[in-house]
């Protein structure tokens, strides 16, 4: 993610996690041909990627399956927005000068 944010790679890091149930995996079959697969998208990883790529279009309604408590998710979104603001402010500051002594 840091390399992507710095422009040292053009490919964003993958953040999805795939699980396969009832069959061996990985094998020669693509995951779309498996009987049961589950894709997990960590909200924090997705939000960080969108934040650093400048595509912070994520909203509280963009997750089709909701398991966690909505208030907790909303609080996490606000914390990431604050983190993003701090990061932007940090980018604008001149480099720190070494203190004599």
What attributes does this structure have?
alpha+beta; Tumour Suppressor Smad4
Indicate the mean pLDDT: 75
**CATH topology, anyone?**
Tumour Suppressor Smad4
- Strand tally is 2
The whole-angstrom Rg is 19 Å
What summary fits the major beta sheet? 2 strands, antiparallel
Count of helical regions: 3
The proportion of residues forming helix, as a percent range, comes to 25-40%
The CA-CA distance between the termini, in Å, is: 36 Å
Q: Multimeric state of these chains?
A: single chain
- Output the CATH class name: Mainly Beta
Task: Output the strand order for the largest sheet.
Answer: 1-2
Structural class: alpha+beta
- CATH architecture heading: Sandwich
- β-strand percent reads 5-15%
Q: What is the chain-wise order of helices and strands?
A: HEEHH
Number of domains: 1
Q: What is the global morphology?
A: elongated
Low-confidence residue ranges: none
Model description:
Helix 2 (43-53) runs parallel beside helix 3 (70-92). The longest helix has 23 residues, at 70-92. Strands 1-2 form a two-stranded antiparallel ribbon. The chain is elongated, with a radius of gyration of 19 Å. The chain is α+β, with helices and mostly antiparallel strands. 1% of the residues are buried. It has one domain: Tumour Suppressor Smad4 (Sandwich), CATH 2.60.200.10. The protein contains three helices and two strands; from the N terminus they run αββαα. It has helices at residues 2-5, 43-53, 70-92, and strands spanning 17-21, 36-40.
């Amino acid at each position: 993610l840091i390399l992507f944010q710095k422009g040292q790679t053009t490919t964003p890091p993958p953040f999805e996690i795939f699980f396969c149930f009832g069959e061996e995996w990985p094998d020669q079959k693509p995951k779309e041909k498996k009987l049961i697969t589950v894709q997990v998208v960590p909200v924090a990883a997705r939000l960080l990627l969108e934040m650093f790529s400048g595509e912070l279009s994520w909203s509280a309604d963009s997750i089709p399956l909701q398991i966690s408590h909505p208030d907790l998710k909303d609080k996490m979104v606000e914390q990431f927005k604050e983190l993003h603001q701090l990061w932007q402010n940090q980018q604008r500051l001149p480099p720190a000068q070494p203190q004599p002594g």
